[in-house]
Design brief:
alpha/beta, Rossmann fold, 6-phosphogluconate dehydrogenase C-terminal fold, 2 domains, 5-stranded parallel β-sheet, 8 strands, globular, binds NADP nicotinamide-adenine-dinucleotide phosphate
């Protein structure tokens, strides 16, 4: 691992976790951190989210070998412009944003000529801010590195090694393919959760207290997802628009087919569909991506 100094811009859940993970797994690597919010910088200093908390993004980026932007995807370009005059030649620019094509464009526009290699650790929680980060966030989670076609293979390999050192499993793919995969595995599911929780709370003939009281029946897991940060998710949908709309179209067609099966009493179609989806759940557990214990191991079966 050949980075001597890593700068982290944005010290919330992702940025804070990277700082803590570097301190734990790569103690020889120096970290600097910056966040636009002074209260976040203060809390980041108290928690030791980076070795040095700086008062500007350009101070944090000076002499860094790697700068990682950990801000909402809609803020990437503005944040990157702030370091334009202060990065040293060869400093690698990366990020953790949940959409990749728009971020590649934003970072390349803000920092022309700099080597930009976006990445997305597929690891998170519904919490945000400087108190949310923890060192083991990336353990056994995938980090998808999405180099542009002209990226230097040695720089890509060093970035992959960095993420492996933080405990992640690393994969590489094009930014376009990433956006399509994540649209179906993460973005559309979040949209469905936001929709269903909103719909349930707007119902007139079921009271809000009944929804909360009887929330064990699947609804509770949607509420966890629907509690995710509004700024982050607004930006994800605005920045991965095409892939999300493509996947939503497919989803709507499949939903209509199931709706029809229910209306006409076609139990075979429903059974076959549910049997197929149960097999997908089994594969996710076999790959170690989730917990097979009843109710996700919560232990409270209300
Ligand atoms: P977060 O906890 O809200 O942290 C983001 C921080 O960046 C906030 O403190 C924010 O300050 C700050 N910020 C915003 N604009 C800035 C700027 N121009 N310069 C410096 N700091 C700035 O968010 P997060 O969950 O860590 O998400 C960060 C990124 O990770 C997003 O791009 C998201 O798509 C991606 N991601 C998130 C998850 C997840 O589960 N949360 C998982 C994987 C990837 P203000 O609050 O004052 O704006």
């Amino acid at each position: 691992m050949s980075y001597g100094k890593v700068a982290i811009i944005g010290l919330g859940l992702l940025g804070g976790s990277i700082g803590l993970a570097v301190a734990e797994h790569l103690p020889g690597v120096a970290t600097t951190g910056y966040d636009a919010d002074p209260a976040v910088r203060k809390r980041a200093a108290e928690r030791g989210l980076a070795g040095t908390i700086c008062e500007s993004a350009s101070d944090a980026a000076t002499d860094a070998d790697l700068v990682i932007f950990c801000v909402p995807v809609g803020a990437m370009e503005t944040a990157a412009r702030e370091i334009a005059g202060s990065i040293k030649p060869g400093c690698v620019i990366s990020d953790v944003g949940s959409s990749k094509q728009s971020v590649l464009n934003a970072l390349t526009t803000a920092l022309p000529g700099a080597p930009v290699i976006p990445a997305h650790p597929v690891a998170g929680t519904e919490h945000s801010g400087p108190d949310a980060g923890f060192a083991s966030l990336f353990h056994h989670r995938w980090c998808i590195v999405t180099p542009p076609e002209n990226a230097d293979p040695a720089q890509v390999e060093t970035l992959c090694d960095f993420w492996s050192a933080l405990g992640a499993k690393v994969d590489t793919m094009s930014p376009e393919h990433h956006d399509l995969v994540l649209a179906v595995t993460s973005h559309v599911p979040h949209l469905i959760a936001y929709t269903i929780v909103g719909t349930a709370s707007d119902l007139e003939d079921v009271t809000r207290s009944e929804v909360i009281k009887y929330s064990a029946g699947g609804f509770r897991d949607f509420t966890r997802i629907a509690a995710s940060d509004p700024t982050m998710w607004r930006d994800v949908f605005l920045n991965n628009k095409d892939a999300v709309l493509t996947m939503l179209q497919r989803f709507t067609e499949d939903l209509t087919a199931l709706q029809r099966a229910i209306r006409v009493g076609d139990g075979d179609t429903l059974f076959e569909h549910f049997a197929r989806t149960r097999a997908i759940r089994r594969s996710i557990i076999e790959e170690g991506q989730d917990d097979a214990r009843p109710d996700f191991g919560r232990g409270d079966h209300d």
